[in-house]
Automatic annotation (TrEMBL):
<feature type="active site">
    <location>
        <position position="291"/>
    </location>
</feature>
<dbReference type="GO" id="GO:0005737">
    <property type="term" value="C:cytoplasm"/>
</dbReference>
<dbReference type="Pfam" id="PF02899">
    <property type="entry name" value="Phage_int_SAM_1"/>
</dbReference>
<comment type="function">
    <text>Site-specific tyrosine recombinase, which acts by catalyzing the cutting and rejoining of the recombining DNA molecules. The XerC-XerD complex is essential to convert dimers of the bacterial chromosome into monomers to permit their segregation at cell division. It also contributes to the segregational stability of plasmids.</text>
</comment>
<dbReference type="InterPro" id="IPR044068">
    <property type="entry name" value="CB"/>
</dbReference>
<keyword id="KW-0963">Cytoplasm</keyword>
<dbReference type="InterPro" id="IPR010998">
    <property type="entry name" value="Integrase_recombinase_N"/>
</dbReference>
<keyword id="KW-0159">Chromosome partition</keyword>
<feature type="active site" description="O-(3'-phospho-DNA)-tyrosine intermediate">
    <location>
        <position position="300"/>
    </location>
</feature>
<feature type="domain" description="Core-binding (CB)">
    <location>
        <begin position="16"/>
        <end position="107"/>
    </location>
</feature>
<comment type="similarity">
    <text>Belongs to the 'phage' integrase family. XerC subfamily.</text>
</comment>
<dbReference type="GO" id="GO:0007059">
    <property type="term" value="P:chromosome segregation"/>
</dbReference>
<protein>
    <recommendedName>
        <fullName>Tyrosine recombinase XerC</fullName>
    </recommendedName>
</protein>
<dbReference type="GO" id="GO:0009037">
    <property type="term" value="F:tyrosine-based site-specific recombinase activity"/>
</dbReference>
<feature type="active site">
    <location>
        <position position="268"/>
    </location>
</feature>
<dbReference type="InterPro" id="IPR023009">
    <property type="entry name" value="Tyrosine_recombinase_XerC/XerD"/>
</dbReference>
<keyword id="KW-0238">DNA-binding</keyword>
Amino acid sequence: MARPAGGLSVPDQAAPDLRAAILDWHRWLSEERQSSSHTVEAYGRDLSVFIDFMAGHLGGAMSLADLEHLKAADFRAYLAGRAGEAYARSSTARAFSVVRSFFRFLERHGKIANAAIHSVRTPKLPHAVPKALSEEEADRLVDGTDIAAATEAEPWVLARDAALITLLYGCGLRIGEALALSRGDAPSGDLMRVTGKGNKQRVVPVLPAVRDSIAGYLALCPHAGDARTPLFLGVRGGALNPRLVQGLMQKLRAALDLPDSATPHALRHSFATHLLAGGGDLRAIQELLGHASLSTTQRYTDVDSAKLLAVHRAAHPRAGR
């Protein structure tokens, strides 16, 4: 079991030199990669599980030299151990990606080099297709009347919820990006600057409906603040908790008979899918979403292709033969 070191996980079975290298890696992730504290902690947990497994597998505390001499069979034993404990393939793939990242860090910083890890394949994952809402379902979600019927909240809270949902769908933001906005970020024109993953900034267009919805919410909000105050506030005046947004979507799913896939993130998927269906350029959509890789955005072409295939099968006179 890993023990915390300044809030971060360090394996119990790490020798002093490995422990020091892990702490250097944590600092590198935080300071140079600018990863969030949650990401650093999650990476630390995944690496700790790997190190402690290897200590049990090889019979002793692990040093940098031990990591350098690991064979492909050792890495496969770790993967097989996770499979035997019924970890999801996606979880194992993520965890092994963290291990690879740590070994790359060690190599780039001249600590050790292990070629065996590069010969080990991670579990194959099913090709996930984003689950977008239909345009009609998205329209119902951004309708303030439906929100009021589902939640029976105070008028300013209803306005806040409507503004947030309209923003997520209208601009394709991640929920974390939306909740990180301050009042100084509230759009006053046709463009808005957003800070995404890795503190990368992008500029997104703002529809009049989004701008008007946010302005209407701010006019009703009873809590005072300045440009640094979070844009979306909870009932007590603090930053809005993302769990409350998840709860709101759960209520709306029940009230509007929407599928379980209707989550805050589904609004981002819907934004991209509907733009693509309307003739949007894939590169432009990549920029709007803040995707580092075009391959991530290309998943939405599968959604559109699936829709076209369904229409074709339903309409073509020979489709049923």
